[in-house]
Amino acid sequence: MQKILFICSQNKLRSPTAEQIFSETPGLDVLSAGTNNDAITPLTSELIEWADKIFVMENMHREKLRKRFRSSLNGKKIICLGIPDDFSYMDPELITLLKRKVPPFLA
After folding, report:
1. Can you list the residues of the chain whose pLDDT is less than 50?
2. Could you tell me which residues come within 8 angstroms of residue 101 by beta carbon, excluding any fewer than 6 positions away?
3. φ, ψ for residue 28 (rounded to 5)?
4. Which are the contacts of 35, defined by CB distance < 8 A and separation ≥ 6?
5. Which terminus of the chain has fewer CB atoms gathered within 10 Å of its CB, N or C?
């Protein structure tokens, strides 16, 4: 079982959409979190340590990860999807982007 963590800022739109979409994928255990302190599910070192792969929506999320959780990363693969904060939860265009960008990194 591959453990996947999706990260955005508030954990309201992009990362929960990704969690919802990929939660039904066989062989994946999926969670999501936000880098902001007031996120729905704030990012913790425990979540980072749990994950096999970490997907961030934007480069700023990767930078926040590296600054705040450097000791928890332990060489984990962090993939930036380059998806801006322009979408609502379960937005069809966001779903299309996620389905195109994520699977190549799951093999």
Report:
1. none
2. 81, 82, 83
3. -115, 140
4. 7, 8, 9, 43, 61, 64, 65, 68
5. C
Closest to 33 (Cα-Cα) out of 59, 52, 61, 60: 61
Express each pLDDT in 19-45 by its tens digit: 999 999 999 999 999 999 999 999 999
| Residue 55 dihedral angles phi and psi, to the nearest 5° | -110, 125
User: Which tokens hold the place of 93?
Assistant: 């265009």
pLDDT in the model for residue 75: 85
> Which one-letter DSSP state was computed for residue 105?
G
Record the tokens describing residue 71, joined without a space.
């000791």
Q: Which residues contact 9 (CB under 8 A, 6 or more apart)?
A: 34, 35, 36, 39, 57, 61, 85
